Amino acid sequence: MLSSALLSPLGPAKIYLYAKPADMRRSFNGLHAIVAAEFGRDIRAGDVFVFLNRRHDRIKLLLWDRDGMAIWMKRLERGTFQRPRSPPSGVQVEMDATDLALLLSGIELTSVKRRPRYALDAASRRAVAPVVS
After folding, report:
1. 133 falls within a domain
2. Residues with Cβ within 8 Å of residue 28, at least 6 apart in sequence
3. What is residue 39's predicted lDDT score, i.e. its pLDDT?
4. d(CA 100, CA 4)
5. Of 20, 59, 113, 126, which is least surrounded by CB within 10 A?
6. Per-residue pLDDT averaged across 31-45, rounded?
C-alpha cells in the first residue's frame, strides 16, 4: 500500500490525474509521452502523474525520484477506483496528497466534505518565502 508516510515527502508537489483512461501496458516512455504531450509538463519538476485504466481497477503513478522516473502501480482484486470529476474540456484533474490517499483507500469522493482551512494564495506565499543568499 502507498502509505501516508510515502505521500508526506511529496510536500508541495502537485498531483495530476489524467482525465482519460490510460492503457496500462504503457510503461516509463509511454506514460512520459502523455505527460509531455497532454499535460505539457516536465516530469523532472517533481510533480506526480496519476493514470487510471478504463475499468478503473488499475492505477499507475509516475514521478521523478531524484535520479530517474519511478512507477507505482496497483491492481484491485475487487472493486474500482473512483475517478474524480474533471472539467469537460480538461485533460487533467489537479489533486493534493489527501485526495490521492482517499482515492487509493477507496473512499467515496463525492461524500467527503472538506472543512474550511486557511491557505496562502500564490502572492502571499512568495512574500513569506525565505530569501536564499
Report:
1. no
2. 62, 69, 71
3. 92
4. 10
5. 113
6. 94
